[in-house]
Amino acid sequence: MLGNVTEITDPGLVHCNGIYPVEEEAESLAERFPEAVIIASCTIDYHMTYGAWKIVHPDGTRLFAAGWHGEDDWDFAGSPTDVAAAFGITAEELSEGGIDMNDDVNVFAWGGFSALALRKVVPFTHTGRAVSVFRVRHTEDAIGSMEEIWLEA
Description:
The chain has a four-stranded antiparallel β-sheet, sandwiched between helices. 27% of the residues are buried. The chain contains five helices and four strands; from the N terminus they run αββββαααα. Strand 3 and strand 4 form a beta hairpin. The radius of gyration is 15 Å and the shape is globular.
């Protein structure tokens, strides 16, 4: 299941007034590339960590989680158990990664869980990677969200 891999780091994908650009962009990619694995995330630390994660497996399994770590008001859809099954993540791998599948959504180790899923399709570490810069086309909704977050403060 190994093909080309693109990692995008873009703080503009953070939540904005009920809109989740990380989810919109991931769904847009999944629509364009239905056989692709999409693992999207963004986090921002404002003395508390806000994060949003979207995982799309080609078999149709989807997961979305977004919110402030430790707070109760999270947006969530999908099942980590279904994602683990789709990617073939074992109980041993979850345990070694410090991931407790029984944790509440607001304290779940989303970053570690996403990294486990990514390792299933890209079994190499981040060391020695070449960095390149390129222009990314965003949907109009995502552009509006980014402008609202970063330019209209």
